[in-house]
Write a structure and sequence with these properties.
Elements lengths: L20 E2 L8 E2 L9 H20 L4 E6 L4 E4 L1 H7 L3 H4 L12 H12 L8 E8 L5 E12 L5 E10 H19 L4 E5 L5 E4 L1 H6 L16 E3 L1 H14 L6 E9 L2 E15 L8 E10 L1 H27 L5 H13 L5 E7 L15 E6 L9 E2 L14 H8 L3 E4 L5 H10 L8 E9 L2 E10 L8 H26 L1
Antiparallel strand pairs: 1-2, 3-4, 3-7, 5-6, 6-7, 8-9, 8-13, 10-11, 11-12, 12-13, 14-15, 14-19, 15-16, 17-18, 18-19
Helix pairs in contact: 8-9, 9-12
């Protein structure tokens, strides 16, 4: 790291301009000779000079950048420990030499290098140069320097100080800074720095957009203010990273983001990095770097494909099992049982009273008779209903009746009501009391309407969607064929 300002005393703030330094006989680094000042009487004056010398030596040797200085005649007056590390020349060997020729710079290059360095005495601000220096073992190292004038007590140029570092180290630093700026400005994924209190400290534009807010308005706010769901899982991951370090692979976190349009369900593929201070002797956690990418669409496509494969397998397995049933009515319940897996909690099969209806006959009032149903209490296989043939007490406008009259699928839901009201809603429709979502599909075979099959879901499931209706229609085709065959067998 290159020094960006003139060295000053950390205790008194006094500029070190014009202060000459020689090789320290005690520490082997640097020692202050100091400007001409009246010496104080007694041991106190000697103690103050010693303290100032030790402080200056500590300041120079503690710098991250190599530092050397020249007086107006080009004699080396400063040489710190970092300069010794880079070039191998100690302060005893460097301080007091005139120029750099023959030892720190090749003789052929010395004139040009020294003129560029000493030109800072007559130029405003800092001058930046790059050139090759010689190491003590004869090697060459490319350095980048910043040089600036050192003013004497009279305000006139008294020399030059030069801070330098290896070019590759400077380039690494610049790359790190450039990477940080690019991540927080141009990255195509979300980047959030979270402090140890699990609050966003820095947010890039992509992350702010994903969170549905501005880059500054999100800072310092709890994650619970930004996310409606998934906060506990996300905060648990952040706490784990602070305690244990980064996980070996990205994690997929489902969240619900609060937006002015309402909540949006999103899936973020997230990577986490524990941030520690590079200046501390022991790692001190500064927070967590959280990088994420929205993969909601791809996850939904993946889930839909997985669901389609599962449902196709269920239809195939149901067809093979139903083919082994001697009773066609039993085959209908087999199709119903296989369809329930992962799809619904309850199912009912209702047949048109008096036999199948043609499209012309379906215009009048319709009554339905229960044929089969799943147990309303404990889970189990579907059971055929009694053969009394009594119609089910469906009120006018019931979804199952609408399904038969319209010859199409009908969806119904209790909506956002209390649990007691939802119970009453289900019982009024002759359904199990825990049902809150329903899907009724017509049973059709040989161009006639045989009845309806109803699938029911409890409060722990989402409402039926269009894709669910398509699957239910596939199941209804198989159930209708089995019931039609059962009717033919009865006639015979």
């Amino acid at each position: 790291m290159i020094a960006s300002s003139e060295p000053t005393c950390g205790t008194c703030g006094r500029s070190l301009q014009g202060v000459q330094v020689s090789a320290s006989r005690r520490s082997g680094t640097t020692d202050e000779l100091g400007p001409d000042e009246p010496e104080r009487d007694g041991a106190a004056a000697g103690g103050s000079a010693s303290d100032g010398s030790d402080l200056l030596a500590a300041l120079l040797d503690g710098m991250d950048a190599a530092l050397c200085a020249f007086d107006a005649d080009g004699v080396v007056t400063h040489w710190n420990r970092e300069a010794e590390r880079i070039l191998g020349w100690s302060a005893d060997e460097a301080v007091g030499r005139r120029g750099l020729a023959g030892w720190a710079v090749r003789s052929a290059d010395a004139e040009e290098v020294e003129s560029r360095l000493l030109s800072a005495m007559h130029a405003p601000g800092r001058q930046v140069h790059e050139f090759a220096l010689l190491t003590k073992d004869g090697g060459r190292v490319l350095v980048r320097t910043q040089s600036a004038v050192v003013l004497g007590p009279d305000g006139k140029p008294a020399g030059v100080y030069c801070a330098f570092s290896e070019v590759h180290a400077q380039i690494d630093l610049e790359r790190s800074i450039a990477l940080s700026e690019a991540l927080f400005e141009d990255a195509s994924w979300g980047v959030v720095l979270v402090d140890v209190d699990l609050r966003p400290a820095v947010v890039n534009a992509h992350a702010a957009k994903a969170l549905g807010t501005g880059r500054t308005s999100v800072l310092g706010r709890p994650l619970g203010d930004l996310l409606a769901q998934g906060v506990e899982e996300l905060e648990s991951a952040l706490q784990h990273v602070l305690a244990e370090g980064a996980p070996p692979a990205p994690a997929e976190v489902w969240v619900s983001v609060r937006t002015p349009e309402g909540e949006r369900r999103r899936c973020w593929r997230s990577g986490f990095l524990r941030l520690a201070s590079p200046l501390a002797e022991e790692p001190v956690p500064l927070g967590v770097g959280w990088l994420f990418q929205d993969v909601t669409e791809s996850k939904q496509v993946e889930q839909e494909a997985s669901l389609l494969r599962f449902r196709a397998q269920q239809l195939h397995r149901a067809s093979r099992a139903a083919a082994e049933c001697e009773d066609p009515a039993e085959a209908a319940t087999v199709h119903l049982d296989f369809a329930l897996a992962g799809f619904a909690d309850h199912a009912l099969i209702d047949r048109v009273s008096g036999g199948a209806l043609s499209d012309a006959e379906a215009e009048g009032p319709v009554r339905l008779v229960r044929v089969a149903a799943t147990p309303s209490g404990a889970p189990g296989p579907s059971r055929l209903a009694g053969r009394a043939g009594l119609p089910v007490r469906y009120a006018e406008g019931h979804p199952a009746l609408q399904c038969v009259e319209r010859v199409g699928a009908v969806r119904a839901s209790a909506g956002a009501i209390s649990a007691e009201e939802a119970r009453g809603w289900a019982l009024a429709r002759q359904w199990p009391q825990d049902a809150v979502h329903a899907l009724c599909v017509v049973l059709r075979s040989r161009g006639r309407t045989l009845g309806a099959v109803t699938f029911l879901r409890g409060a722990g499931r989402s409402a039926f969607e269009r894709s669910d209706a398509v699957y239910a229609e596939d199941v209804a085709v198989r159930i209708a064929a089995a019931l039609d065959l059962a009717g033919l067998a009865e006639e015979e």
